[in-house]
Amino acid sequence: MEPAAKPSADRDALLAKAMKALTVEGSAEVAVAVLATESGESAVYGDGTFETASIVKVDILATLLLQAQDAGRHLTGQERAYATAMIENSDNASASALWTVIGQADGLDTANKRFGLTGTAGGDGALWGLTRTTAADQLTLLQQVFGDDSKLSEASRTYLQGLMGHIAEDQHWGVSAAADGTRWALKNGWLTRSTTGLWVINSIGRVTADGHDYLVAALSNGNSTKDRGVSLVEAAARTAVSTFADDPA
Q1: 89: exposed, middle or buried (C-beta count within 10 Å: 0-12, 13-18, 19+)?
Q2: Distance between CA 130 and CA 142 in Å, rounded?
Q3: Does the global pTM surpass 0.85?
Q4: Strand, coil or helix: what is 131?
Q5: Other C-beta atoms within 10 Å of 125: how many?
Q6: Strand 132-133 vs strand 184-192: parallel, antiparallel, or unpaired?
């Protein structure tokens, strides 16, 4: 069984020190969380809340799978088609369809209480992309998807992991930058806020570096361009994993 996350003040301090070396433009904010799966040790930098954009699609599917388990049923063919398009291609129409199936924010929030998320709130009405979350909560969600101590069954976890491992090629960015090869599974999110023109750029997933597996969540907002946001979350992911480089266990 994978160890539960063990927050470490020393790890947090080490990560905070390393994050100071990142170049963050004045309008931007960033938070990152990392878990070394072998030991369960984790580190978190930044406790603010961020709009999820499309990373919430992992949470939507996890909620759907949990609801299906409770009902003793398999996903329908249509639900599976929506799930594939939503995760692999980040298709918004599919996400909207499944958001309705799960009961929108009420369904998401109910599942998240069971998953152990404490700082995440579903978006109003149809606005799933404006769900708000924290880096620490996204790390908790990743443990539900990739860890053994989960409310999701092994079959549900394997299914969701498989989709996250087959992301469309034009979305091969984000936490995968911390991997030293092709062993990663992720979901990215990107959104321009209409009120400011600034970008929300997020990435969550599992990476393998130096033979060790890590769960990583990197969140940002206030980026002047998508490219700058991508560079920021990639740098944050690399920095987070690097804090375990000398002692991953």
Answers
A1: middle
A2: 19
A3: yes
A4: coil
A5: 10
A6: unpaired
Residue 83 structure tokens:
């799930």
Tokens at 94, concatenated = 């599919």
The length of the chain in residues reads: 249
Residue 1 is assigned to a structural domain of this protein: no
Q: What is the pLDDT of residues 56-113, one digit of tens each?
A: 999 999 999 999 999 999 999 999 999 999 999 999 999 999 999 999 999 999 999 9
Structural domain boundaries, residue 187: 6-242
Contacts of 78 (CB under 8 A, 6+ apart): none
Of the candidates 156, 194, 175, which has an alpha carbon nearest to the alpha carbon of residue 79?
156
Strand order in the sheet with 199-209: 6-7, 41-45, 29-36, 212-223, 199-209, 184-192
Structural domain count of the chain: 1
* Cα(121)–Cα(19) distance, integer angstroms: 27
CATH at residue 142: 3.40.710.10
Read off the pLDDT of residues 36-70 as tens digits, 9 standing for 90 and up: 999 999 999 999 999 999 999 999 999 999 999 99
| Sole residue written with tokens 């990197």 | 218
Long-range contacts of 154-160 (CB under 8 A, 24+ apart): 156/62, 156/65, 156/66, 156/68, 156/69, 159/65, 160/58, 160/61, 160/62, 160/65, 160/87
Q: Token pair for residue 31? A: 């938070």
Q: Quick check: is 85 in a domain?
A: yes
Q: CA-CA distance, 219 to 51, in Å (whole number)? A: 9
